[in-house]
Amino acid sequence: MKLAAMTIGLLACAVILSACGSQGISVPKTSPYFRGAVIFRDHCSGCHTLATVGAEGSATSIKNRVKTNGPNFNFRKEEYEQVMYAIHNGGFSGAIMPENVVLGAEAREVAKFLAKYSGEASVGVFSALMYCIVAGNMVTGALGQTASPRLAKLHCDGDLRAFSALLAGLMAFGAVTGIIGLIAVKVAGTPY
Ligand code: HEC
Predict the structure, then answer these.
(1) Burial level of 53, CB count in 10 A (0-12/13-18/19+)?
(2) Whole-model pTM?
(3) Which residues have CB under 6 Å of ligand 1?
(4) Is pLDDT above 50 for 160?
């Protein structure tokens, strides 16, 4: 008896969970954007990524990219007019995305939805990245504070050799950190 009740309970949970999973939309049903979210899931998620509707159609790395992978809307921010343009013309280039995937009121609903929900992840990433600048400024500030009296003294003493060596060292430090940053972007960056 107990076992039967447990099985029924588990089955009910599974049904509820799978219903949520296939739905995949985190916009509340009562929201004015809900219809747009459904239209996006049904017509756009094959080629575009957007977490709000559980869409994963964009490329996840440059290597496995295929022609139909459209921009990832977790990161790319779109305005209403841009979405309407893309829908009517088949993306911005008109080369890959089919034109008029949706029409009329449906196009307007999905454009309104995308203008509101696209680019949300970028805000978080941007804020996190801003802290790299704060940290970087602290290091450069500290280095500058210790180096400038020494530079001044060396210059005063007429020791141009030591002055140039210290200056070159500071500039090399800046260049190397910059290059490391560029390499990190190249290696770990994802297509935007
Ligand atoms: C068959 C795949 C496919 C489908 C379906 C598709 N797209 Fe696209 N979309 C693309 C590709 C590929 C691009 C990028 C190339 C281009 O702009 O021509 C793109 C570009 C876009 C752009 C321009 C983004 C930018 O900033 O460059 C928008 C906006 C857009 N799509 C919205 C939508 C919407 C809304 C839907 C659903 C109604 C949709 N797409 C359906 C493949 C698709």
Answers:
(1) buried
(2) 0.70
(3) 43-44, 46-48, 68, 70-71, 76, 78, 82-83, 86-87, 91-93, 95-98, 101-102, 110, 114
(4) yes
